[in-house]
Amino acid sequence: MKTNFDQYLAEQMKDAGFAERFEKAGEAWDVALQISALREGAGFSQKDLARKLKTSQQQISRLESPSYEGHSLSMLRRVAEALGASVHVVFESGAKAGSRLVSQSPVSARVGKKCRV
Fold it and tell me: Can you give the pTM of this predicted structure?
């Protein structure tokens, strides 16, 4: 069953300009979408998560922004721990490196207890 977000994304992907920007955003989009989905799945607002992490709601918003590329591994670990998840960093070489794009599968299918970055 598709979530509201999956339906929204499918609709937005019909726009060629959006689809191109979405493809180029790559991993930053993936990280932002995973954090947001994990947070929402845990029943937290951005403000709730910020309180738990002793940071600001603006920082959580920044982490969930698809255009933000300043994620630190230490902050990702803090977020994952607060949401009952774990962080895994994977380096891939050759053909595998370009084969995992955000748009190839819905975020809800990839987000679970493990958060791959």
Answer: 0.63
